[in-house]
Amino acid sequence: MCINCIRNQVDITEGIPKHATICFCRNCDRYLQPPMLWVSCQLESRELLALCLKKLKGLNKVRLVDAGFIWTEPHSKRIKLKLTIQKEVFTSTILQQIFEVEFVVSHQQCDDCAKVMAQNTWKAMVQVRQKVDHKRTFLYLEQLIIKHSAHKDTINIKECKDGIDFYYGSRSHAVKMLEFLTAVTPLRSKNSEQLISTDIHSGTSNYKFSYSVELVPLCKDDLLCLPVKIAKALGNISPLVICSKVGNSVHIMDVNTLSVAEISTQTYWRTQFQALASVKQLVEYYVLDVEPCGPVRGKHVLADIQVARSQDVGRNDTTFFARSHLGGILNPGDTVMGYDIGSSNFNNDAFDALHRGSLPDVILIKKAYPAHRKRSKGRNWELRQLSKEQDEMVLPRKQDQERVEQDYEMFLRDLEEDPELRATVNLYKANKGKKENDHVMTEDESDYEDEDFPEIKLDELLDNLKLDEGPDAAAAAEDGEEGEDNEDMTMD
């Protein structure tokens, strides 16, 4: 065959598209490079030529000899290329062909510009985390936020596995939340920023700011074993202490001497340590005898207390002597919660360095009220909660849901049993309608009426008003729903 006949019968450009589309963002002047990369290219530049050639399928089956732009009007939204390719069609026969490809410039908004143009998008985020196996700290922190209205500027609150994320439309609001958290709890934080977009016309840039907050992994009533360096710096206090309070610093107390000290935030993060045991490891004990023996510091009275495990009462005669700060509130016959030091195995280097002969067998923490819990009486108060969204990436399991409910019940019991803790949060009157957990006491249960349980009085509760119920709720209240009180509503 002659060359003209070969060209008439063989088309080496078959399979290569002559028309294609390329995406262009008008806000940032960038082209889309599949799959999701946006690059900035000038007209008739080598970068734009390479981007167009990558859009052509089948070009890898031929040899590209030359490629160049054909001039078009800038406003025509057309990009034309002139390509020269070669391919072996027969044995020792190479055919060369020149053809044109036309690209249509399609306008598409990139992801970064879409975030800028979107309404109600967040500009700053505060991520609060704590590396513990319970939610008690976040439950208490949530009540502090509600009491001081620190969440009024948030546009969204999302609950994650290990904490809470707060989203804001302004950076100043996120900084304000960070300052509030610093004032109420010991923490450390670091901030980062991400460039979202740059306006090449005005020279301005748009950023998103993230503040990562890590809370101290210590909670009230935790058992601590201080490193030697910290114990000496705090007046040579005993290394084995309990956490009595967590404010903007960690308050600790030695139950053997009633010595107290504070661990500042800076001191803790310089020498970090974990809690030796938490409230989930508490053991129930039965008080046999109480003998005051020492000084008094506020509500704490030092006493020698003889106790036995509640599960051992009536089975064996094993008893323990513990020196405790609860001498002023414990009497023989009471129930108390404590840590079983003698039969516990702690994986802690600081604890292993202590002399085992000088360690107590039991460290008592707080008084318990199991008889009152058996009454199953419904609470006449309730707490407000933040409107949080669940993280879609972490689906809660049934075991996790049960654990959260147990943590919440434990937090409610702490509020009932600790007046000082209760004074820092707002409690609201519950609805007067009969609840599912309400229980009518029997004659046997009426014997617990005289128990010294710290009941919550009505003057400690706030009215639960809700001002945005609308006319439907008002009409329903006038129709005779006597089981509900119009003042006992929840305020958003």
From TrEMBL:
Keyword Transport recorded: yes
Matches recorded under Pfam families: NMD3, NMD_SH3, OB_NMD3
Name recorded for this polypeptide: 60S ribosomal export protein NMD3
UniProt-annotated stretches for the region Disordered: 434-453, 465-492
Upper lineage: Eukaryota, Fungi, Fungi incertae sedis, Mucoromycota, Mortierellomycotina
Job description of the protein: Acts as an adapter for the XPO1/CRM1-mediated export of the 60S ribosomal subunit.
InterPro entries: Nmd3 (IPR039768), Nmd3_N (IPR007064), NMD_SH3 (IPR048899), OB_NMD3 (IPR048898)
Keyword Transport attributed: yes
Subcellular location: Cytoplasm; Nucleus
Primary residence: cytoplasm
Similarity-based family: Belongs to the NMD3 family.
One GO CC term on file: cytoplasm
Residue span(s) of domain 60S ribosomal export protein NMD3 OB-fold: 282-367
Keywords: Cytoplasm, Nucleus, Protein transport, Transport
Domain Nmd3 N-terminal: 1-215
Single annotated GO MF: ribosomal large subunit binding
Bias kind Acidic residues: ranges: 443-453, 478-492
